[in-house]
Amino acid sequence: MALEADTSEAAADPASEPDDDVETSADIRHTNRGLYTLARFTMSPLARLLFRPRVIGRHNVPKRGPVIIASNHLSFIDSVAIPMVSPRRVRFLAKSSYFDGTGARGGFQRLFFSSVGAIPVVRGAGSAAQAALDQSRRIIESGEAFALYPEGTRSLDGRLYKGRTGAAWLALTTGAPVVPVGLKRTNDFLPVGAKIPRNVRITIEFGKPLDLRHLGSADSGKARRQATDEIMSAIQSLSGQELAGSYNEAPPSGTVERVRRLIPHERR
């Protein structure tokens, strides 16, 4: 699911303007609110029965106003667990393919992702990544709670990987506080590749909001890196994970990619 931060991969360009085919702030505020409320009413009891979540620190999520929820990422169900236990509606980006299916399965998938607060986005690098970052900014500036995973994708070995700077750029650009989240044992509840959940109790802990504005402008690479490291430090203190000390990315696909990774650059 694309809280796996397409936003983290984008180039930080605060001057970008909304495209005509992207939702406006008003659209973002009202999209599927009734469906989300219904899903919370019907799905939350079921989710709590299945996850048996131990939820800590819900009071740390501001009841209103823009906020960024930044979490570690261990399992597919993270993107269900966070919206179901959050004290307010949470929006996040999900792959557009989740909304494009046909038939009964496609319809159910579209209904499910819409009901848990997902907004479709085309994944990719370059302009697609920038569009995702800009769309995330507009969601936050509309006064919503927006969630993402600074690591960029799921950790397959349970360690916490270095954060990419997309979340920091969003925080420094919008001025929104960041609520760190530590998830525990969601990877044991539904391991990668598993289709049937295990009888494991998960923990979801919301930390105290971080105000990162004192670190400087979003235009500063140093400020983005410092803000990212502060976010990841807070997540690690909640999750208790071992630090990997590297970025979570697939092995290089060829010589060009191997060379590119040897050149110092900011992993956004």
Question: Can you offer a commentary on this structure?
Answer:
This protein is α/β, with parallel strands linked by helices. It has one domain: Glycerol-3-phosphate (1)-acyltransferase. The chain contains 9 helices and 7 strands, in the order H-H-E-E-H-E-H-E-H-E-H-E-H-E-H-H. The chain has helices spanning 25-30, 33-51, 78-85, 103-115, 127-141, 166-174, 186-189, 221-239, 255-262; strands at residues 54-56, 67-71, 90-95, 118-121, 145-148, 178-184, 203-206. It has a 7-stranded mixed beta sheet, with helices on both faces. The chain is globular, with a radius of gyration of 18 Å. The two termini are 18 Å apart. Mean pLDDT is 79; it is low at 1-30 and 256-262.
